[in-house]
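On clarity, I found the account of how folds are encoded harder to follow than it need be. Since the whole study asks how a given chain folds, the encoding of that fold should be made plain. For the editor and my fellow referees, an illustration may be useful. An entry of this sort, consisting of the sequence and the corresponding backbone structure tokens, reads as follows:

:::
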Amino acid sequence: MTQATSLADNLKFAFNTTSGIPHNNLDYSKKTGSDQQNNIAQIGTLVLEWTRLSDLTGKRVYANLTQKAESYLLNTSPTSTEPFPGLITSWYDITTGQGIGANGGWGPLDDSYYEYLLKMYIYDPVKYAQYGEKYEPMSPYNFS
């Protein structure tokens, strides 16, 4: 657990953005990132691991960082960037937290976000009910 905590402590600077959406390309020597936007899979796949680390260590900071970033995906703004119920745009502005355009899909750079919605809901269906609700419009299954 010590190594995982150390790694997270050394990586959490990625979330030091105006919106809290993390940089993806990091300069470790300067503890900065160079991105202006990030993809939903790159934002959304961090949430389970960092939330689990928080649960194991009792340090809520890790979950809070990723869940703040995830909140922009769960509450898409502007709504015009949600081209179909439950389907969101692929890219988000790191500074504003807003979606960019209305291009989205199920392919590479997108699909992992949708997988992690379901994984978070399965991880704790009470605490993360909103994740299941976001997933439900896209699925023939009832997750409620």
Summary: The mean pLDDT is 88.
